[in-house]
């Protein structure tokens, strides 16, 4: 690991433990999946800015840490569910920053990327669509949102759902189907043509703005706000989604590392039947299994990060990492709750909240089953291709 990443990670961890974790009991943290309030977000980010740890994965010259370096820094930011919010390493902003840094024009970067990196604006990624409409979920080829060119503008119509952070966002990236194929557009928010129908009540509650159902009606977007060219939407989506899946793994590994710390401390100090809980084989073995899962998750993340750092899109590798890490961390979170018994399902510690967040993580950015299906298709394709070559 590079010295610069190690130094950043040390500062990030200290900030999360000393400054962010005390906010976990702040009454301004909203419930029912709607995320922390804007005043709390701004307050924590001002402290992060003053401490020199805001958006720590983006370098002062605008460059990006390598994926391996980012893995260490984002893991430390995730030691609290509020850490990525405070440090500006959260989804969807982190993934949107990565995409815009790779494909946006200089003018687009100045107008849309700069405020996100500065922590002054939140963003949203409008891709998923309602199942009831037959729209795109895990299968983006089913996209129903359309765009058509009218002079030097594009007009977009459709519906989106589970759009993280749309409420309160100032920058949007909208995917829509043009005659040439799926395309991406940058939009200023709020816009009266993009209407939030409702903010969904979800099991997780760490994302500012929650997850919204959206109606897009006669949205007019100047042609120079298209990302790339018409029909390049799916290609650009892969530029974003492979690293973004891995970033989820990084952040939630940090959260489960913290849950393990809390459960271990509980098991070492709580006594039952004449000895500490940790000395009971059933409890001690659960903590040992967690240690194994955490280390395997870390190694899987680092391996996938190395692949992405070679310049490959790493689609298959990021799918493998998403499956392996999300399932491993679910086991860790579940065992932490079990070790702590009644305390584990209460709000007395952050463990219960981590459990809820990790359960959602198994679905967001592609459910486990979709990634397995994608990998199975690759296995078949590679095998048949090899057979034809032989």
Automatic annotation (TrEMBL):
Domain Acyl-CoA dehydrogenase/oxidase C-terminal: 231-378
GO CC, alphabetical: cytoplasm
EC number(s) from the headed UniProt entry: 1.3.8.7
GO MF assignments: flavin adenine dinucleotide binding; medium-chain fatty acyl-CoA dehydrogenase activity
GO biological process: fatty acid beta-oxidation using acyl-CoA dehydrogenase
Domain Acyl-CoA dehydrogenase/oxidase N-terminal: 3-120
Location of the Acyl-CoA oxidase/dehydrogenase middle domain: 124-201
Entry annotated with the keyword Oxidoreductase: yes
Cofactor: FAD
Keywords: FAD, Flavoprotein, Oxidoreductase
PANTHER family given in the database record: ACYL-COA DEHYDROGENASE FAMILY MEMBER 11 (PTHR48083:SF13), MEDIUM-CHAIN SPECIFIC ACYL-COA DEHYDROGENASE, MITOCHONDRIAL-RELATED (PTHR48083)
Oligomer and partners: Homodimer.
Family assignment from sequence similarity: Belongs to the acyl-CoA dehydrogenase family.
The protein's name in its UniProt record: Acyl-CoA dehydrogenase
């Amino acid at each position: 690991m590079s010295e610069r990443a190690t130094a950043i990670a040390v500062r990030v961890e200290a900030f999360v433990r000393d400054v962010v974790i005390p906010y976990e009991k702040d009454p301004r943290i909203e419930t029912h999946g709607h995320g922390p309030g804007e005043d709390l977000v701004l307050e924590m980010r001002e402290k992060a800015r003053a401490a020199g740890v805001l958006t720590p994965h983006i370098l002062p010259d605008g460059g990006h840490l390598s994926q391996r370096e980012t893995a260490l820094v984002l893991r430390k930011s995730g030691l609290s569910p509020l850490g990525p919010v405070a440090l500006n390493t959260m989804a969807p902003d982190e993934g949107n920053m990565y995409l815009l840094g790779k494909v946006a024009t200089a003018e687009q970067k100045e107008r849309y990327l700069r405020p996100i990196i500065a922590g002054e604006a939140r963003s949203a990624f409008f891709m998923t669509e309602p199942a009831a409409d037959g729209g795109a979920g895990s299968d983006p080829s089913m996209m129903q949102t359309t765009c058509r060119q009218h002079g030097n503008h594009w007009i977009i119509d459709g519906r989106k759902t589970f759009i993280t952070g749309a409420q309160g966002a100032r920058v949007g990236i909208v995917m829509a189907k043009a005659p040439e194929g799926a395309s991406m557009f940058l939009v200023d928010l709020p816009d009266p043509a993009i209407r939030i129908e409702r903010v969904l009540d979800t099991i997780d509650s760490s994302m500012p703005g929650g997850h919204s159902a959206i109606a897009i009606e006669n949205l007019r977007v100047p042609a120079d706000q298209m990302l790339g060219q018409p029909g390049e939407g799916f290609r650009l989506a892969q530029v974003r989604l492979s690293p973004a899946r891995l970033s989820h793994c990084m952040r939630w590994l940090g959260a489960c590392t913290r849950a393990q710390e809390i459960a271990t401390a509980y098991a070492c100090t709580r006594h039952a039947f004449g000895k500490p809980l940790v000395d009971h084989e059933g409890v001690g073995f659960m903590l040992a299994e967690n240690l194994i899962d955490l280390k395997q998750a870390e190694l899987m993340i680092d391996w996938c990060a190395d692949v992405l750092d070679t310049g490959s899109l790493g689609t298959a590798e990021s799918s493998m990492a998403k499956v392996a890490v999300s399932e491993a961390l679910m086991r860790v979170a579940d065992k932490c709750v079990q070790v702590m018994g009644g305390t584990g399902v209460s709000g007395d510690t952050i463990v219960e909240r981590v459990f809820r967040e990790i359960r959602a993580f198994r679905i967001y950015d592609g459910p486990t089953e979709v990634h397995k299906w994608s990998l199975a298709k690759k296995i078949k394709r590679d095998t048949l291709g090899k057979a034809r070559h032989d």
